[in-house]
Design a protein that fits this description.
mainly alpha, two-stranded antiparallel ribbon, about 5% strand
């Protein structure tokens, strides 16, 4: 079903679920390690597509985010997610 899925927001929304749950995808210790790693990183103001000002964004989205790339330190997290979702 997902072999040809792109990053198109509309396409993803029509073919995927809003959330999923896996029991035991990570151990308690791994969750602890992920939390510690994330707490070291500074969050950034979130944005929306097409908004031109901070005021416009804050009208619809009041959150902070942080995106992580696959690095030597985070590779195991990405690998685990890939095993769970494939």
């Amino acid at each position: 079903m997902y072999k040809n899925l792109t990053n198109n927001t509309y396409e993803r929304a029509t073919k995927t679920h809003e959330y999923v749950w896996w029991n035991s995808a990570f151990t308690s210790e791994e969750i602890y390690n992920i939390q510690n790693f994330c707490e070291k990183e500074e969050l950034e103001d979130s944005t929306t597509i097409g908004s031109t000002s901070k005021e416009q964004v804050e009208e619809v989205r009041k959150s902070k985010v942080k995106f992580f790339n696959k690095t030597c330190e985070t590779e195991w997290i990405f690998d685990r997610f890939n095993k769970v979702i494939t």
